[in-house]
């Protein structure tokens, strides 16, 4: 990565969530860098970590790779394929059951949210007393 940035470097407008600018400023001050240099440093680290995660999973990183990294990717792919091949039918069945339960939990959570939303709508409706209540 070319670490030189200047007026002719690529520019990108960015909206930050509340409080993040202050966090970046504190990190930049602690590391004796400008906020721009701090953001670039943080992005560089995050991108390298993301690429290594992909390599460890046997996937191609989203950057140029060295021959050593390509060898590592192939070794990781082979290890993952061996692991998949050794998973027993019982383990596959257990995984399928677990996935089915997770789907059911998602469905129940969705239904629960619908019930809660319905109750909230009901609680916002004003109660009009019956005619008999007014007379009594």
Q: What Rg is obtained from the alpha carbons, in whole angstroms?
A: 28 Å
**Percent strand:** under 5%
Termini separation: 83 Å
Shape: flat
Q: How many runs of DSSP E, i.e. beta strands?
A: 0
- The total tally of domains equals 1
H and E order: HHHHH
Mean of all residue-level pLDDT scores: 83
Determine the number of helices (DSSP H or I, runs of at least 4 residues). Answer: 5
Share of helix, binned: 55-70%
- Biggest sheet record: none
**What structural class is derived from the secondary structure elements?**
mainly alpha
Low-confidence stretches: none
Q: What can you see in these coordinates?
A:
With 136 residues, the chain is an all-alpha fold. The chain has one domain (20-123). It is 68% helix and 0% strand. It has 5 helices and no strands. Helix 1 (20-30) packs across helix 2. The N and C termini lie far apart (83 Å). The model has no long low-confidence stretch (mean pLDDT 83).
